[in-house]
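From the methods appendix. Each design record in this collection lists the tokenized structure first, followed by the designed amino acid sequence. Records were kept in a plain field format so they could be parsed without special tools. The example shown here is representative of the layout used throughout.

RECORD:
FOLD TOKENS (61 positions):
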């Protein structure tokens, strides 16, 4: 079945651009995510990390 799909994909013109576009999208996403993690303020990280431990707003059903 994989051979059928591969042969079918080779017959489509211009399909070789899609893997390049998807690689660029994922690469850019992870570069932006890495930049955000590095440049995040320590106070914000501390506040967000304490959210699960904050018992003032939690109610047990």
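DESIGN:
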């Amino acid at each position: 079945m994989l051979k059928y799909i591969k042969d079918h994909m080779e017959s489509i013109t211009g399909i070789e651009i899609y893997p390049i576009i998807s690689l660029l999208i994922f690469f850019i996403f992870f570069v932006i995510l890495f930049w955000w993690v590095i440049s995040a303020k320590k106070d914000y990280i501390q506040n967000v990390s304490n959210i699960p431990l904050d018992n003032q707003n939690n109610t047990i059903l």
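APPENDIX NOTE: The radius of gyration is 23 Å.
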